[in-house]
């Protein structure tokens, strides 16, 4: 007897996260509460990624429906189920007793409960990225799940520090110091992805090393400073190696606050200023308490200033490592004046073609996988893109450490020749900052 198709009811935030989500439920049926279409109307205008997702979804919906009516169901294609739109339903007595407000979330719950009652022999599940709505659904006896299609399965690589091999053969370590490297096939450890950084140690000596996929060799990583910033530990040394390697076009740096991610990326960019036409340093704006920027006083620069200040702080640290009238500080001021060094909200760069640009995206843990993909696919010739962030500090209400774009990028790109990832564990701001990060 064939298995009965499941029914998945989608919340608005799932569509705003991934406008192609309706095709990711295999041969099961998908239902859109009409409230969702009503809410998408509010997001159609604007330049943010959610506005793009809303517009693309509505266009796709129009294309697949044609002259068909959603009441009978519209086919989503071969090996897929049907798409329905469910109209509004009255609140059950339980819902009337539980919720006094007929908010969009509660109207979606009313529709979901009606569908569950109508199709008693089929599994009905509400899919939403809103944790609180999932809890409300479960309280009413309704199955509810997060949208997990683009979630990272294993985040170990994002949480562990530098890989260290203890009691390693002294002869191998000597060879790395005294030669150009060791062929991969001759190295004792064979399971080594591209641009994997690690430390080899024995009782008397140690060496920082990596697997170079272009030479197919294990090579020594040397410590070097960038624009006056010296690496303070192995993680920072590895980061600067990836950030300054012209063959590595995509880098992700993860780690908690104070580990130096953004500072190292900016210092590396300035060190290589002659190799790129422009340095862009951007971050997504996630308004405080989900309030729009409009509530802040002042003009547009006053509104975005607080969000960009941490990036300017890193620039100040670099300037502080040189004298006030040093050649380096004069260069920084000239680059800012001539538009060669720009610090700006990420939304202001969307839609641009990025050629010969050193592009640093800070706080990338607040981006969706689709947003990260959009940024990378705009990279033109000669462009290098750096994503930095802390997957434990996510401000977006619908992302977590397994569904954010930074984690997704790192998992999917691991092992590619042009990609490198370093997770920085040790804080370098101060002993107090490190203590607070660990204990509070």
UniProtKB/TrEMBL annotation:
Top-rank taxon: Bacteria
Alphabetic keyword roster: ATP-binding, Nucleotide-binding
Any one GO MF annotation of this record: ATP binding
PIN domain sequence ranges: 6-135
GO cellular component, one term: cytosol
InterPro entries for the chain: P-loop_NTPase, PhoH, PhoH2-like, PIN-like_dom_sf, PIN_dom
SMART domains documented for this protein: PINc (SM00670)
PANTHER family, A to Z: PIN DOMAIN-CONTAINING PROTEIN, PROTEIN PHOH
Family: Belongs to the PhoH family. In the N-terminal section; belongs to the PINc/VapC protein family.
Name the record gives this protein: PhoH family protein
Organism: Plebeiibacterium sediminum
């Amino acid at each position: 007897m064939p298995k009965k198709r499941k029914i998945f009811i989608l919340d608005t935030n799932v569509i705003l996260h991934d406008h192609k989500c309706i095709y990711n439920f295999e041969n099961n049926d998908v239902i859109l509460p009409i409230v969702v279409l009503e809410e998408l109307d509010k997001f159609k205008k604007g330049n943010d990624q959610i506005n793009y997702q809303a517009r693309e979804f509505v266009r796709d919906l129009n294309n697949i429906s044609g002259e068909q009516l959603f009441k009978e169901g519209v086919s989503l294609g071969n090996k897929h189920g049907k798409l329905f739109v469910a109209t509004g339903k009255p609140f059950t007595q339980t819902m009337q007793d539980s919720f006094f407000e007929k908010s969009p979330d509660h109207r979606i719950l009313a529709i979901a409960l009606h569908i569950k009652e109508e199709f008693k022999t089929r599994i009905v599940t509400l899919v939403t990225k809103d944790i609180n709505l999932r809890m409300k659904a479960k309280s009413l006896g309704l199955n509810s799940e997060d949208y997990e299609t683009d979630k990272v399965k294993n985040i170990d690589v994002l949480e562990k520090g530098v890989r260290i091999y203890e009691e390693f053969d002294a002869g191998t370590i000597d060879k790395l110091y005294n030669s150009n490297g060791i062929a991969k096939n001759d190295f004792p450890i064979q399971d080594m992805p591209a641009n994997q950084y690690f430390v080899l140690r024995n009782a008397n000596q140690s060496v920082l090393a990596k697997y170079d996929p272009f030479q197919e060799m294990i090579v020594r990583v040397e410590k070097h400073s960038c624009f006056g910033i010296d690496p303070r530990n192995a993680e920072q040394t590895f980061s600067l190696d990836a950030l300054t390697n012209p063959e590595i076009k995509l880098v992700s740096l993860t780690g908690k606050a104070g580990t130096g991610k953004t500072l190292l990326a900016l210092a590396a960019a300035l060190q290589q200023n002659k190799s790129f036409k422009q340095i862009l340093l951007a971050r997504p704006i996630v308004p405080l308490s989900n309030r729009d920027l409009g509530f802040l006083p002042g003009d547009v620069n006053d509104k975005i200033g607080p969000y960009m200040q941490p990036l300017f702080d890193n620039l100040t640290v670099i300037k502080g490592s040189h004298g006030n009238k040093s050649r380096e500080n004069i260069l920084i001021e000239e680059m800012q004046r001539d538009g060669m060094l720009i610090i700006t909200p990420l939304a202001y760069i969307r839609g641009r073609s990025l050629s010969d640009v050193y592009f640093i995206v800070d706080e990338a843990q607040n981006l969706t996988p689709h947003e990260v993909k959009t940024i990378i696919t705009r990279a033109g010739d000669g462009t290098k893109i750096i994503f930095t962030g802390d997957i434990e500090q996510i401000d977006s209400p619908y992302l977590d450490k397994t569904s954010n774009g930074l984690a997704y990028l790192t998992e999917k790109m691991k092992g590619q020749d042009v990609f490198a990832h370093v997770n920085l564990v040790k804080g370098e701001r101060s002993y107090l900052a490190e203590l607070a990060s660990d204990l509070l």
